[in-house]
Write a structure and sequence with these properties.
mainly alpha; 0% strand
């Protein structure tokens, strides 16, 4: 008697697991998913509320910056000749960003809590992601070292700008 056994790995059990694994298999896919989920809400908030500094920071660090962070997390291991970034590292960064942008949108929509809480959580997501990039950057060989340094420093500058925006008082 022959028995067919399905996939044994945990992420691929069931249709929802297979769909999630297909969407979140690489850092770039997960970051684009987070950016895609929040872009319409942030643009709608900008349309109805108007231009706010918190909203501008969220648009730059969220839907614009997160795919760049995902691209760097996906390409730097290739340039370094190392194994890919582990799922737990990039999922922690991008799922924290998902939570941060949700909190920020709720704060801007209801005006019950300061939007800086959401930006501070978004900053934490960026720091988790940048930690992975800075550890990988050291392994990149000389021919691609400048590109890796430029990419990592550019993303770090974006996170530094977000840090200043969160820490400095408004007004």
């Amino acid at each position: 008697m022959c028995m067919a056994i399905g996939p044994l790995s945990i992420p691929q059990r069931g249709p929802a697991g297979r769909l999630w694994w297909r969407l979140a298999r690489t850092p770039l896919r997960l970051s684009v998913l987070v950016a895609t989920l929040h872009t319409p809400a942030l643009i709608t908030l900008a349309w109805h509320i108007g231009a706010m500094p918190e909203l501008a920071a969220a648009l730059i660090a969220g839907p614009v910056g997160l795919p760049l962070l995902g691209l760097a997390m996906q390409r730097l291991p290739d340039w370094a000749g190392r194994s890919p970034v582990h799922y737990a590292r990039y999922a922690a960064s991008f799922l924290t960003a998902l939570l941060a942008l949700s909190l920020l949108e709720a704060a801007l929509y209801t005006a019950t809590l300061p939007a800086r809480y959401g930006l501070a959580l978004l900053l934490l997501a960026w720091l988790i992601g940048l930690r992975s990039l800075w550890t990988l950057r050291g392994w990149v060989a000389a021919p691609r070292r400048r590109a890796a340094d430029a990419f990592t420093l550019g993303l770090s500058a974006l996170a530094a700008g977000l840090t200043l925006f969160v820490l400095l008082p408004a007004g």
